[in-house]
Design brief:
222 residues, 36% helix, eight-stranded mixed beta sheet
């Protein structure tokens, strides 16, 4: 399936989670085969250029996407100074799980299989949410910290793809440790020559292709 940008329906959403109101951008192509919720990482938001690039690739492949701010505007302002929220993995995971619950109830996403795309600390939040929400059908981590999901790793049943830059040595080691603990279908893909943010020419395109293929395989085969 190849979808043009003009065919994609976009709308802002506001999602309630444990007393907080979160802002998100929902994009739905025609005849979508799944919905991918993005869990942003340390110090990031739904405006992340890297995650938006991946989201566009998914949309053109027939997947709906929800880019969601996991922190409120007040929390984001505080986090810039203190960093107190970006490593609050339990809080982030609770909000990712709320997005999964929203997707199951929202008219625009009803009946679509749900996947999660996590970056940096958002990958740990995505894995915890996947462990707690069996409705999650697939997970992809980009330069993530799946090790921070800790005890939830043993409970993740959703097929999980870990993508790491070949020059991101410390994160490769952490991903390998987490990968060994995952008991469901899994793959670890290392992008040669890429650093943590996949800023090298072609690196993010490779991430997009890997994520697209993983989600279309596991969400499109409903």
């Amino acid at each position: 399936m190849s979808v043009s940008a003009q065919q994609i329906t976009e709308r802002p959403i506001r999602l309630a989670s444990a007393g907080a109101t979160l802002n998100g951008d929902l994009s739905v192509p025609p005849a979508a085969v799944g919905l991918v919720v993005f869990a942003h990482g340390s110090g990031s938001s739904r405006h992340s250029s890297r995650n938006r690039a991946v989201a566009q690739a998914l949309q053109h492949a027939g997947l709906a996407t929800l880019l969601l701010d996991l922190l409120t505007e007040r929390e984001e302002r505080a986090d810039v100074v203190t960093g107190e929220f970006r490593f609050d993995i339990d809080l982030l995971a609770t909000r990712v799980a709320a997005a999964v619950d929203w997707a199951a109830a929202d008219d625009a996403a009803t009946s679509l299989p749900v996947g999660l795309f996590g970056a940096s600390t958002g990958a740990a939040a995505a894995l915890i949410a996947a462990a707690d929400r069996p409705a999650v059908r697939a997970v992809v981590s980009r330069g993530g910290r799946p090790d921070l999901a800790d005890r939830a790793l043993d409970r993740v049943e959703a097929p999980t793809l870990l993508i790491v830059g070949g020059r991101d040595d410390v994160v490769i080691a952490l991903n390998r440790q987490a990968f060994a603990r995952l008991t469901g279908p899994k793959e670890l893909q290392i992008v040669p020559g890429a650093t943590h943010l996949f800023e090298e020419p072609g690196a993010l395109d490779q991430v997009s292709r890997l994520a697209r293929d993983w989600f279309t395989r596991h969400l499109g085969a409903a």
